[in-house]
């Protein structure tokens, strides 16, 4: 589970709200995290592996969108591994973890493990948030024909740079002047929570807007490709819209409990005594959402692969051979270039205009294909409706 409370717990003089949730059935909570993260990790890897029965096709050009989707899955896998490692140590060595609470302890390894594991989990999931934002930006730019593989370098710089900068800044402010003597008070911890939740809130606010604009641009492209809007193109646009909807639905399901939990805990922190009877229902709600976070946060990796590619099946093909992998789609522009080469001696104005129109159609098909990565039916319909496929 990814929560800034993990870093806050590393301070010996932690606040009462953090103490409340971290001390609530820690064995059960760690077991839930291990189980959920392990299941998600195995199913995510299963989704990404090549499957038996898939007809080998020529490897297409990699697109920036397919690369981003793969990087999101990698961030989820590494973040899940961090959760499994942290929870396993927490369960297996309770005496080692107990030394974190010692104010003037001489053993620095418990605190080092606490900070290191919490930062690893937070950094990987924060990077996943930034990559998801980049995916929305890239989808819009691809439709506008303003993106490509060259932009992936800029995405790397933005994603990892912002993720590391915000994580280090939040941790430095939280543990000032030192880990053994963290400053007390909400004012000191608030910057840490802000730097943690900025990318999450950015995805919640900005991605739906970008996805909506991308869907509108896709509809315009499909209409302008041949001057008509056929049933196949209408279905393709609907499937792209459903793909974006599934992505946002998974994100909201997996992380809305974090926002609710933090709101409840901040409200408890503002009370003089969080153990008062009138606050019982709020304490119960905070503890329930805390357990829900342990279940849903690690499951993001597997649920995202379902939203990206659909269910790819159980039959794994471990034989090493050159074949298409699930996160790369069939580019109809590549098909057009290889299977239907243009004659060399086209000199007339009519043939030149046809070549220009075909080029525009290829670019449109490539842009739409990038947005429907992993959806075989969409790619087949796109290829069949393409003028190249029809022998135009």
Automatic annotation (TrEMBL):
Keywords: Cell membrane, G-protein coupled receptor, Glycoprotein, Lysosome, Membrane, Receptor, Transducer, Transmembrane, Transmembrane helix
Membrane topology summary: Multi-pass membrane protein
GO annotation, cellular component aspect: apical plasma membrane; lysosomal membrane; melanosome membrane
GO biological process entries: melanosome organization; regulation of calcium-mediated signaling
Chain intervals for the UniProt region annotation (Disordered): 347-366, 371-392
Name of a matching Pfam family: Ocular_alb
Function: Receptor for tyrosine, L-DOPA and dopamine. After binding to L-DOPA, stimulates Ca(2+) influx into the cytoplasm, increases secretion of the neurotrophic factor SERPINF1 and relocalizes beta arrestin at the plasma membrane; this ligand-dependent signaling occurs through a G(q)-mediated pathway in melanocytic cells. Its activity is mediated by G proteins which activate the phosphoinositide signaling pathway. Also plays a role as an intracellular G protein-coupled receptor involved in melanosome biogenesis, organization and transport.
Protein name: G-protein coupled receptor 143
Gene name per UniProt: Gpr143
């Amino acid at each position: 589970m990814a929560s800034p409370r993990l870093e806050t717990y590393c301070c010996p003089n932690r606040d009462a709200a953090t103490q409340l949730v971290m001390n609530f059935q820690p064995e059960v909570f760690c077991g839930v995290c291990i189980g959920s993260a392990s299941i998600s990790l195995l199913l995510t890897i299963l989704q990404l592996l090549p499957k038996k029965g898939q007809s080998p096709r020529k490897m297409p050009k990699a697109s920036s969108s397919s690369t981003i989707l793969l990087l999101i899955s990698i961030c989820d896998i590494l973040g899940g591994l961090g959760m499994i490692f942290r929870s396993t140590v927490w369960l297996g060595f309770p005496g080692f973890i107990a030394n974190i609470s010692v104010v003037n302890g001489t053993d620095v390894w418990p605190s080092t493990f606490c900070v290191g594991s919490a930062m690893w989990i937070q950094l990987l999931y924060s990077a996943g948030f930034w990559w998801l934002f980049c995916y929305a930006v890239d989808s819009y730019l691809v439709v506008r024909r303003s993106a490509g593989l060259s932009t992936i370098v800029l995405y790397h710089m933005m994603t990892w740079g912002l993720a590391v900068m915000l994580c280090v800044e939040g941790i430095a402010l939280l543990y000032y002047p030192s880990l053994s003597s963290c400053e007390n008070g909400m004012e000191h911890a608030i910057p840490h929570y802000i730097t943690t939740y900025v990318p999450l809130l950015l995805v919640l606010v900005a991605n739906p807007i970008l996805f909506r604009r991308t869907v509108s641009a896709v509809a315009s492209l499909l209409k302008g490709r041949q001057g008509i809007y056929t049933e196949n193109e209408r279905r393709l646009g609907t499937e792209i819209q459903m793909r974006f909807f599934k992505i946002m639905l998974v994100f909201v399901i997996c992380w809305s409990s974090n926002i609710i939990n933090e709101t409840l805990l901040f409200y408890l922190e503002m009370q003089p005594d969080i153990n008062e009877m009138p606050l019982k229902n709020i304490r119960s709600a905070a503890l329930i959402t805390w357990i829900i976070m342990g279940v849903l946060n690690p499951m993001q990796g597997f649920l995202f692969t379902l939203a990206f590619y659909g269910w790819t099946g159980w039959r794994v093909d471990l034989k090493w051979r050159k074949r298409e992998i699930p996160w790369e789609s069939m580019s109809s522009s590549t098909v057009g270039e290889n299977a239907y080469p243009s004659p060399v001696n086209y000199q007339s104005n009519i043939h030149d205009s046809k070549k220009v129109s075909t080029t525009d159609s290829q670019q449109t098909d490539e842009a739409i294909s990038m947005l429907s990565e992993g959806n075989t039916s969409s790619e087949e319909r796109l290829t069949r409706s393409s003028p190249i496929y029809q022998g135009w």
